[in-house]
């Protein structure tokens, strides 16, 4: 039934513009290609583009079994390796032939083909050993009832338009031309036909002229998609988000096969393929190098290195920071602390895409805020490997805790020195484990590490692990040697899947606990695809205990047998990403928890009251008149300012993707509940708008407000997709505003 409904919606689009939906997947391949092509190959985009579509060009252009089999073969490493061997035979003998136009055009074509191979293997969940994971598999299980064909159809058609909407925010973006330029070219006739001959094809199967037409169908498909998108943007996106409201976030952020993963993998792997043209190393060695490079999450060694260059514009208000490095996503996460013994406060900023493995920048706050005669200066800052970070405070010292989800490893730093490394090496199913929060859950005054892994387990049931801070404190006092330990050697509490253990439920999507510890406090765990937050009593935490409450929006239920039996997986059209963000804070000595539902533009607040959890009120954004409300994202990030007693909430998609920050005072919330006897605040522009993204960046959706942090009255805002709309030069640098 689901497939039938999806087909009807796609057919309705076809009836509106029958010649326009073809070559599905073309623009995504072109977008990824633009992100990763080295500068010295920019002049060869006609051949790069043709190569990036080539593996799909013969599936249906001239139907035959032999051509379909060849098309399938072009998706895998042996075809690439055989083609590189041919290049060495013809062009690799001397510098003159190497630098000839025929040589360079064939190289560019094969580099484009390689990008297609990597995108498809991850995008369509074809990575050996990881086939129960990956974008297509997980999307099918969470949004399409396990129907992989429905998910495949959605990604290949609707995914194109969602991807374009991220790059092309409006009709003024000059990047339209990248997708529509009629500059696609095949390599020399002799070269491309030789590749076909070596794979058992003849001129009778397909001629050069026919092949040229088949490949350029990709160009026609790209132009058709752009035309459809420009004329029917809102209609097409309404259909796409009506089917899967979470599609954009998931297609970008999925750890295996998401757009950012693909870009990071290709940024690392494309140079490996380039080097294969420098010297002939044999087919076995090439295959080995491709496997090592691969498209699995990278496992990197961590170490502090100097000079992460950041541009600071202090003349602007707010102060604006962006790194020199492209493909960085600088600003994905932010925290502050005294991470060195110099008495200075530092802003730690995550750049998870940088150098394929991710970087953490340490920026002295006084340098950011200092008045400088130069409006835009370059500053070098400490740079460390890793993807996200938290602060661990012990005996008055702040330690920077860096997560590397690809290797399930966590690193503790102070003074740029690596003090402690903890790795979960217990099982091959340990996937994407990271620090979700650091808070005291046992009342000993030492913060504890709350690890989450929503993709943990072969079927991504999810996992939550608590490492008690007292067990690791001793390692942090040794400044002379790095301690490396396995998670299994520590005393922990671990919940695999929680009380349900449904496949792809994503238990542990977010984890936090009461802001100020009390024996009557709580631990909060999101089970994302059930649309519930499980609430555990801090008193008596142990393995395999049941939660005290199951919370679903305004409903706070006891976890009796009847309640648990009714819980099941639902799609994002139902759960709206309830619990994606959990945020706890204290106001007038009382603990509160804010739980976002950003697809429905709501934030729910609950109050901890003498061992009970009670619903307090909801914040509902009504200020935006957006054609597609699912894309507004009110509640994407939440931060409380204890000095101003304000709750900041971001909505990265407000104002047609420009982004905004909203502020709601605790006084207003208290009066709404106690004086006006209401349980809802309608957040509006006149009363609650704090700021609209001030950056003059009209290209692409920059995710303004993806992350927030407050330090002594200063609000820091992350925009990790700054420069996303650029398809040349500085791309996806990211930015932070103070």
TrEMBL record:
Q: Which residue ranges contain the repeat FG-GAP? A: 317-372
Q: Which Pfam families match?
A: Zn_dep_PLPC (PF00882)
GO MF term (any one): glycosylphosphatidylinositol phospholipase D activity
Record's keyword terms, sorted = Signal
Q: Which GO terms describe its cellular component?
A: extracellular matrix
UniProt domain Phospholipase C/D: residue ranges:
28-175
SMART domains attached here? Answer: Int_alpha
The signal peptide, as residue positions, is 1-23
* Matches recorded under InterPro entries: Int_alpha_beta-p, Integrin_alpha_N, PLPC/GPLD1
Q: What is this protein called?
A: Phospholipase C/D domain-containing protein
Q: Which organism is it from?
A: Zygotorulaspora mrakii
């Amino acid at each position: 039934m689901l497939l039938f409904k999806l087909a009807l919606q796609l057919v309705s689009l076809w009836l509106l513009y029958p010649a326009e939906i073809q070559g599905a997947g073309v623009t995504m391949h072109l977008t990824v290609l633009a992100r990763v092509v080295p500068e010295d190959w920019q002049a060869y985009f006609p051949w790069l583009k043709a190569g990036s579509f080539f593996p799909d060009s013969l599936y249906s252009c001239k139907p035959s079994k032999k051509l379909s089999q060849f098309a399938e073969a072009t998706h895998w490493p042996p075809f690439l390796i055989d083609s590189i061997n041919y290049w060495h035979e013809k062009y690799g003998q001397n510098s003159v032939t190497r630098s000839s136009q025929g040589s360079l055009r064939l190289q560019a074509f094969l580099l484009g083909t390689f990008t297609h191979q990597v995108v498809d293997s991850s995008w369509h969940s074809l990575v050996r050993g990881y086939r129960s994971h990956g974008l297509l598999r997980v999307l099918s299980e969470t949004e399409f009832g396990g129907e992989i064909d429905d998910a495949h159809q959605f990604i290949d058609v609707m995914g194109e338009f969602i991807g374009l909407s991220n790059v092309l925010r409006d009709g003024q973006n000059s990047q339209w031309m990248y997708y529509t330029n009629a500059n696609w070219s095949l390599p020399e006739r002799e070269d491309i036909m030789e590749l076909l001959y070596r794979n058992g094809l003849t001129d009778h199967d397909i001629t050069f002229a026919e092949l040229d037409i088949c490949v350029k169908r990709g160009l026609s498909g790209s132009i058709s998609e752009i035309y459809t998108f420009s004329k029917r943007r809102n209609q097409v996106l309404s259909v796409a988000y009506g089917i899967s409201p979470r599609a954009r976030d998931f297609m970008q952020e999925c750890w295996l096969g998401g757009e950012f993963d693909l870009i990071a993998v290709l940024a690392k792997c494309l140079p490996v393929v380039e080097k294969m043209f420098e010297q002939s190393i044999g087919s076995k060695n090439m295959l080995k190098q491709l496997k090592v490079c691969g498209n699995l999450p990278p496992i990197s060694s961590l170490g502090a290195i100097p000079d992460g260059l950041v541009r600071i514009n202090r003349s602007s208000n707010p102060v604006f920071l962006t790194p020199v490095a492209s493909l960085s996503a600088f600003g994905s996460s932010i925290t502050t602390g005294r991470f060195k013994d110099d008495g200075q406060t530092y802003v730690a900023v995550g750049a998870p895409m940088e150098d394929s493995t991710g970087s953490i920048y340490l920026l002295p706050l006084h340098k950011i805020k200092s008045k400088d005669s130069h409006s835009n200066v370059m500053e070098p800052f400490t740079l460390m490997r890793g993807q996200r970070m938290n602060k661990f405070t012990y005996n008055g010292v702040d330690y920077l805790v860096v997560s590397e989800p690809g290797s399930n490893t966590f690193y503790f730093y102070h003074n740029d020195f690596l003090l402690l490394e903890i790795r979960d090496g217990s099982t091959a199913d340990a996937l994407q484990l990271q620090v979700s929060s650091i808070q005291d859950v046992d009342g000993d005054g030492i913060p504890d590490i709350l690890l989450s892994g929503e993709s943990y387990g072969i079927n991504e049931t999810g996992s939550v692990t608590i490492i008690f801070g007292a067990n690791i404190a001793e390692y942090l006092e040794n400044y002379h040697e790095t301690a490396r330990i396995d998670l299994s050697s520590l005393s922990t509490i671990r919940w695999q899947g929680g009380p349900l253990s449904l496949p792809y439920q994503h238990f542990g999507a977010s984890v936090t606990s009461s802001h100020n510890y009390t024996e009557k406090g709580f631990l909060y765990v999101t089970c994302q695809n059930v649309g519930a937050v499980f609430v555990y009593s801090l008193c008596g935490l142990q393995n395999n205990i049941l939660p005290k409450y199951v919370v679903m929006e305004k409903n706070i239920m006891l976890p009796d047998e009847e309640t648990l039996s009714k819980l099941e997986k639902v799609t994002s059209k139902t759960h709206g990403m309830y619990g994606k963000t959990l945020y706890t804070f204290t106001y007038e000595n009382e603990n509160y928890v804010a739980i976002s539902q950003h697809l429905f533009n709501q934030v729910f607040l609950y109050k901890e009251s003498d061992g009970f959890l009670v619903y307090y009120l909801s914040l509902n954004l009504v200020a935006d008149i957006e054609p597609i409300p699912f894309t507004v994202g009110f509640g994407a990030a939440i931060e409380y300012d204890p000095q101003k007693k304000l709750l900041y909430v971001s909505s990265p998609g407000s104002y047609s993707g420009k982004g905004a920050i909203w502020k709601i005072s605790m006084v207003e919330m208290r009066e709404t509940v106690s004086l006006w006897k209401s349980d809802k605040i309608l957040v509006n522009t006149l009363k609650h708008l704090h700021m609209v993204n001030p950056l003059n960046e009209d290209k692409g959706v920059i995710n303004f407000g993806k992350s927030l942090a407050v330090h002594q009255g200063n609000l820091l805002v992350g925009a990790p997709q700054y420069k996303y709309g650029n398809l040349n030069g500085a791309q996806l640098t990211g930015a932070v505003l103070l």
